[in-house]
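Write out this protein's structure.
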Amino acid sequence: MEVPAFMGEKPASPPRRPKETAYVATLFTEGRVRVREVRTREGGVRTLYYLEVPEAPKGVVFALPKRLGARLLGQPLLAQHAPRTNGKGLLGGKQDFLRTVPQDRCWGRPLFFFVRGRLAAVDLEEGRLQVEVRPNPGGKLRAPFTLTLLAPLSLLEALPPVGSAVYLEGEVRPRSGRLVVRRWEPARLWDDPQ
């Protein structure tokens, strides 16, 4: 049995996998940094910084960290958020901030998304699919989640079997808040059987 060189030494963190095999779900957002004060149940006031995206569906909040929001208040910003949908494929509620994006990476396509995950379900009748995004070794995500996405019938019919790894791209429909897939391709994921 091997003994660590120093007692109390932290165990090595799991090795990071190549980015091309990581599970990921990212929504690119572009807007202006804004602030709002909200009364808490206890009667206090809480300051919330967010990205005001004109094309965003009603009720969707693109949260920003306090330090970043305070520093960039009123300025334009291109950011990545973690999309979450309900079972009908509607984007809603608070979308967690991931990182800022350099302005030279702006595609002029607000609310563009991509997902690399495992195909969980395909519903041809409803025009929907579900993709599971799992935690990556060494990553920040703690629990898997499923995104429900819409897609044209021709795209749904071309998808591989449920359980396959896929990479999907698309955009959010501004009025309805639905995430619509426009392109897909097969992918490799770190936990694929060899």
